[in-house]
Amino acid sequence: MAAPKKRRAPAGGQGRPGRSLALILIAMVALTGGMFLADQPTPRLGIDLAGGTSITLEAKSEPGQESAINKTNMDTAVQIMERRVNGLGVSEAEVQTQGDRNIIVNIPKGTNSAQAREQVGTTAKLYFRPVLTVAQGTPTPEPSASSSGKPTPSGSPSAPTADKGKTSATPNASATTQGRAVTGALKADSTPTPKTSTTPKADATPKADATPSASAADEAAAAELQKKFAALDCSSKASRAEAARGAKPTDMVVACSSEGDAKYVLGPSEVSGTEVDNAKAGFDQQRGMWIVNMEFTKKGSKQFQTITKKLSAQQSPQNQFAIALDGEVVSAPQVNTTLSGSAEISGSFTQQSAEDLANVLSYGALPLSFKEQSVTTVTAALGGEQLQAGLIAGAIGLALVVIYLVAYYRGLAFIALLSLLVSGILTYTLMSLLGPAIGFALNLPAVCGAIVAIGITADSFIVYFERVRDEIREGRTLRPAVERAWPRARRTILVSDFVSFLAAAVLFVVTVGKVQGFAFTLGLTTLLDVVVVFLFTKPVMTLMARTKFFAGGHPWSGLDPKRLGAKPPLRRSRRVNAPTDPKEA
């Protein structure tokens, strides 16, 4: 006797719809609880709905670099600003050019707008320069006539004597007389040592005759830099900004510390900030301070190794290198050994300032300098009116969908409305949680995407309902019709949602600004449509098929076989043929 075959569970999980319903119920409760635990009961709003700050930045050209303000550099600046703002977790910020010289930055209210405002226009030009000399950040008295008449052995003017000449800007900087250090360092760093006597010969070539002129030019440059260094007042923010204006990486410059308590003469740049591959803020437990750790590219690592090897053989303060950011020295560590690969910036950092600096360095320096031209506050009045109009339009559309479902599908409309409610709850909670998680902000295009999703979700229900009706028209009862219709409807729903999600993904990638909000919301609601149909609509339909109201084909169930024009049930009957042979009769 053959063993009885095991009965296979019906397709679609007819016997266990409660598991799917329990799963989606748990998800809804978890998301709602997380929304309140995160203290984010409403979605974060974009600048058009919540208002915010609009910043206008004007590009500035350095002397002799007027051609630097061009479309390529402006587009690069826009991209860097976007990355900086997004790196702070500010979403829905808009960065776009206006005309040939201006960039408009719109930052939504309620985000890190103050930090974004500080960072968005920061040029972030980083250079590693050797320190030639260091002094206090206050102006130094000009040298008197009696102290400046005798030449020094090196051929440079003698240093002026001043009571404030001995200072140390960092714990490892040695004291030095200001004027002597300036001219001496300049001579050592930039003036070539003459191979012959400075006295010109009678038969000297024109090239040799140029040596005294070049030496005189160096002397004049040294005197000018010494004068600028002596007069520099680092206690003034305007003076600090003016100190390095127009300086090139190959120039020797004067600069102030970021705190304004010290001033420096710095040599030409040895390593540029463009060679920084990555920067991260961290807390040094041993020293109890915040620092910024940097990793160099392969080229930058070699350059850093070369300069640290050179500086480690010098005496203080010439064994220091200054980390100059936008013309200000944020740190000037002492070098005692050859280094390569990475470096750190230390100073009077808070956690926030260290993270801000790391964020700026990670995304690169702006190719241009910018001046804050205007800052205006954007109100949400206009956006609120548009939102109200959009919500009214959405409510009208939803009401028309409900009327259509009730008129055409009758009892099935109840299942569709429950599914729309579940989809709405999931969408709202996810939008609220994505605000603090990834910086998602709800703007008007995003609201439009959510309204369009109502039609996409309703379309999935209609596909399934029509498949069930087709099975009933073929003469099947409701319970087998629900299960037989599901595989066919499932394929159609998945293909339809895949096309919608693909369109949303492409739109999100190729667009910028507010249009991305529309694409993101459309993609999110399309994914939720699949979840709702699989875990809620199908199980509820299975349960409803077991009730007398739907299984009996009530006229208001939407599944009345008579109204659907169902065929009579197919029945098999045995046909007995009459005998033709009289003997058989």
Report on this structure.
The chain is α+β, with helices and mostly antiparallel strands and 585 residues long. Helices cover 48% and strands 15% of the residues. It has helices at 17-37, 47-50, 71-87, 113-120, 178-190, 206-231, 237-243, 298-311, 351-362, 381-409, 412-438, 444-473, 478-510, 514-544, 548-551, 561-564, and strands at 52-60, 94-98, 102-108, 126-136, 253-257, 262-266, 271-272, 276-284, 289-296, 321-325, 328-331, 342-346, 369-378. Helix 1 runs antiparallel to helix 14 (514-544) and helix 10 packs parallel to helix 12. The longest helix is centred in the C-terminal third of the chain and has 33 residues, at 478-510. It is elongated. It starts with 16 loop residues before the first helix and ends in a 21-residue tail after the last helix.
